[in-house]
Write a structure and sequence with these properties.
CATH topology: Rossmann fold
Largest sheet: 5 strands, parallel
Strand content: 15-25%
CATH class: Alpha Beta
Structural class: alpha/beta
Number of helices: 4
Number of domains: 1
Strand order of the largest sheet: 2-1-3-4-5
Length: 121
């Protein structure tokens, strides 16, 4: 990794999971911003255009789910890499924005960190 920490936006409505994965990613050397839903995620991206990658759950309350959020991010912030996760759904490749990755729950934090490193390499 370069001297500048890569910036990850974690979007997860389950508070414990959000805090846990955010802490794990910080421990892995990433700068992490958190959002509990799509609206917060859009706000973080507007505030921080330097975000490198978004890791989002599919199923969450609010104006849009993680798949719609991913499509919106791909349209507005094309450089942002996208990882989508779910423990309930397994979307087809056509549901994930081009260049995006699906990671089913449960996942290991090390696996997520490795995937992020690979996508940003």
């Amino acid at each position: 990794m370069t001297d500048k920490a890569k910036i990850v936006l974690v979007v997860e409505d389950e508070a414990l999971l959000l805090f846990t994965i955010a802490d794990e990613l910080r421990d892995a050397g990433f700068t992490v911003y958190e959002a509990r839903n799509a609206d917060e995620a859009i706000g973080r991206l507007e505030e921080r255009p330097s975000i490198d990658i978004m890791f989002t759950d599919i199923d969450m309350p609010g104006s849009m789910d993680g798949l719609r959020l991913s499509a919106a991010v791909r349209d507005r912030w094309p450089p942002v890499k996208i990882i989508v996760t779910s423990g309930k759904r397994n979307p087809g490749a056509d549901a994930i924005p081009q260049g995006g990755v699906f990671m089913p729950k449960p996942y290991m934090p090390e696996q997520l960190a490795e995937t992020i490193h690979d996508m940003l390499a």
